[in-house]
Amino acid sequence: MQNDQYLEQYEFSCTRCKYVWRETFEVREVEDSQGGSWHYFYLAGSPASSPSMRNICPSCQQPNAQHRQIDRRRISTPNSP
Q1: How far apart are CA 51 and CA 59, in angstroms?
Q2: H or E segment and range at residue 36
Q3: CA geometry: angle at 64 spanning 25 and 49, to 5°?
Q4: Which residues, including other chains, have CB under 8 Å from residue 12's CB and lie 6 or more apart?
Q5: Which residue, among 25, 10, 24, has the nearest Cα to 55 in the 3D structure?
Q6: What pLDDT is stored for residue 22 in this prediction?
Q7: What letter does residue 30 receive in the DSSP assignment?
Q8: What's the confidence (pLDDT) of residue 16?
């Protein structure tokens, strides 16, 4: 079983009010014993939904946000090579 951790930064933009913001997620990628891969997302240390599910604009509160990944960096952990 393999466990990897990443920091992924996403840029969100509202198609209604044009507000733009960024969020950085910690992503834990876990491979199970059958070879399946699972991704767990965290914001500020707390569990969070996937960036693809975060479509509410914090400015106008409408579900019109689009997202794109702008950065991904691996986090070194004691068990990683």
Answers
A1: 17
A2: none
A3: 30
A4: 20, 21, 22, 23, 51, 54, 57, 65, 66, 67
A5: 10
A6: 96
A7: E
A8: 95
Question: How far, in Å, CA of 65 to CA of 11, rounded?
Answer: 10
Query: pLDDT tens-digit profile of 34-71?
Result: 888 999 999 999 999 999 998 899 999 999 899 999 99
Q: What is the pLDDT of residues 2-36, one digit of tens each?
A: 689 999 999 999 999 999 999 999 999 998 888 88
* d(C-alpha 54, C-alpha 21), whole Å: 12
Return the closest-CA partner of residue 13 out of 55, 49, 70. Answer: 55
- Residue 72: CB partners within 8 Å, gap ≥ 6? 6, 7, 8, 9
Q: What is the pLDDT of residue 35?
A: 84
Task: Please give the structure tokens belonging to residue 18.
Answer: 């044009």
The total number of residues shown for the chain amounts to: 81
